[in-house]
Automatic annotation (TrEMBL):
SUPFAM superfamilies: UDP-Glycosyltransferase/glycogen phosphorylase. This is Glycosyl transferase family 1 domain-containing protein. Gene3D superfamilies: Glycogen Phosphorylase B (3.40.50.2000). CDD domains: GT4_PimA-like. Residues 190-324 form the Glycosyl transferase family domain. One of its GO terms (molecular function) is glycosyltransferase activity. It holds the Pfam family Glycos_transf_1.
Length: 358
């Protein structure tokens, strides 16, 4: 019987933190558990202010150093695109390697703003410094890998592409049977936390300006004041704001929507895009980050011009799409996911990448 190697993970995980990166962390760790003995230490530094974050990080460092005496084969963590976040990762790697020098380091870059990040000299210097301690960087797409390598800050043999994917409760065949259901008169839908940087307020203004018959939202609120702002902008009562939704309930909401709309201009590869495509529900979003790599640069729902006007025009186009063309787009969306981002294939790729290191 093959002896399992040992893997140490530090990062955010559900249900403590619930967003695309934490969900991806959980899925990948589950896939790796078939080949590794896994020890996880949660990063809880995103709660509270800077002092609480620093204290939480200090506790994490103590835990990492303590468990590192077990001599893990791999240390796996994420690669944040913030100066403070990257310092945390750098220090965590140094501490782990101080105790266990032979441990391989894998860092996962989920963001799509790497080139913007390294435009700042101190960020570029820190990334170059940290890259010397890393054995493998996982990137979201070929474009992401190309950006990393062309920066000259990390060697090409240290970068691999691991596509995002998602778990789906219903089978491919079950969803396939619903492709030809005509949801052209259903609600437009936005599944995104109510955060100002996600530009939800812009979408509320657009939905009321068109005006749409109805647009539904689900997500966690940034603050009461932001929700009050959204309500004030909802002059035609077009938008309906609801709370967090997960699991099968989320899949049902996506599957019964006319289209998913994302107004954010700052994305890497949001999992909700894949979640929507898996249900055969078309997506309208800006061509930012690596979304174009996943759906194809010619995907009809991609908004090329990064303006509110262009987003509004794309929603209006979808709203007036003839039934036959809309159903064809549903089938195209379904095929995009199931032909390219099958969960089992991508999980197998992840396991092979990690095993290859040790």
């Amino acid at each position: 019987m093959e002896n399992k190697k040992k893997l140490l993970f530090w990062g955010e995980l559900p249900p403590t933190v619930y967003h695309g990166i934490s969900i991806s962390n959980e899925r990948i760790l589950s896939a790796l558990s078939t080949g590794f003995i896994i020890h996880t230490i949660e990063d809880k530094g995103s709660f509270g202010g800077r002092l609480i974050a620093l204290f939480s990080f200090f506790i994490s460092i103590l835990k990492l150093m303590y468990v590192s005496y077990r001599k893990f084969d791999i240390y796996y963590t994420n690669m944040p695109m913030s100066y403070f976040g990257l310092w945390k990762i750098y220090l965590s790697i140094v501490c782990v390697k101080l105790i266990s020098s032979n441990t391989k380091v894998v860092s996962h870059l989920h963001r799509g703003d790497f080139l913007d990040f390294i435009k700042i000299p101190r960020n570029k210097y820190l990334f170059k410094k940290i890259s010397t301690h890393i054995d493998l960087v996982l990137s979201l797409s070929k474009t992401s890998k190309s950006e990393l390598v062309s920066s000259g800050l990390i060697n090409a043999d240290k970068v691999e592409v691991l596509h995002n994917t998602i778990s789906v409760t219903q089978s491919e065949n079950t969803i396939r049977k619903n492709i030809l259901n005509d949801f052209s008169q259903s609600d437009f839908y936005c599944l995104c936390n109510y955060i100002s940087t996600k530009r939800i307020h812009h979408l509320v203004e657009i939905a009321n300006a068109i005006p749409l018959v109805r647009m539904s939202f689900n997500g966690a609120a940034e603050s009461d004041s932001y929700m009050q702002k959204l309500s004030a902008l909802n002059t035609g009562a077009v938008c309906h704001f609801n709370g967090v939704i997960n699991g099968e309930e989320k899949e049902v909401a996506l599957s019964q929507s006319k289209a998913l709309v994302l107004p954010s201009l700052n994305e890497g590869m949001p999992l909700v895009v894949l979640e929507s495509l898996a249900q055969s529900t078309p997506v309208i979003c800006y061509d930012v980050g690596y979304i174009g790599d996943y759906v194809g640069s010619d995907y009809p729902g991609l908004v090329k011009e990064l303006t509110d006007k262009a987003l509004k025009e794309k929603i209006e186009w979808m709203n007036n799409l003839p039934s036959e063309e809309y159903l064809a787009l549903r089938k195209h969306s379904f095929d995009l996911f199931w032909n390219n981002f099958d969960l089992n294939k991508i999980n197998c790729s992840a396991l092979n990448m990690f095993k290859h290191l040790v």
